[in-house]
Backbone:
């Protein structure tokens, strides 16, 4: 489990996670960047999936990316924290890792799910991400490498702090 400053579309492993909208048909932020980098074939495959519920995940091929797979997940929109946002965000990570296990994906990169236009507070989101990934890896042990792909320095700092706080609790 490692935070890295960089572009998730350049990750060289088995899969990247896309912070998608419920249509899975592309959008802004990381979702748009992944769709642009993967090429139009991704949109065609996503049309066949029939969307995705918040907190769930679906798998597609990686097309023109350096990874064979993309795991698409729909994070919650932040509405103050009293509308199941923490449970839904935690479910995103578990759903992605469960798909990774099912498809024998050994290395993957996550973006900061729900932290862009969906408005999830970065500190709260990174704490959930670190906790869920650590818990899954401890119980399942089938994924060798998880990267948190950080688009900016403030996101990287938030992940580093979340990992440090989590490690102190252990």
Residues:
């Amino acid at each position: 489990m490692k935070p890295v400053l960089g572009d998730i579309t350049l990750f060289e492993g088995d899969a990247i996670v896309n912070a998608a909208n419920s249509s899975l048909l592309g959008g802004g932020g990381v979702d748009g960047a992944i769709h642009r980098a993967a090429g139009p074939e991704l949109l065609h495959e996503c049309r066949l999936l029939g969307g995705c519920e918040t907190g769930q995940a679906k798998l597609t091929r990686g097309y023109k990316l350096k990874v064979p797979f993309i795991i698409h997940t729909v994070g919650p929109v932040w509405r103050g924290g009293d509308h199941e946002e923490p449970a839904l965000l935690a479910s995103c990570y578990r759903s992605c890792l469960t798909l990774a296990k099912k498809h024998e994906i050994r290395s993957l990169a996550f973006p900061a799910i729900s932290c862009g236009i969906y408005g999830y507070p970065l500190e709260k989101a990174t704490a959930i991400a670190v906790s869920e990934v650590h818990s899954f890896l401890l119980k399942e042990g089938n994924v060798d490498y998880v990267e948190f792909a950080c688009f900016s320095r403030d996101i990287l700092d938030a992940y580093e702090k979340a990992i440090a706080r989590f490690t102190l609790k252990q």
Q: What stands out?
A: The first strand starts at residue 2 and ends at 5.
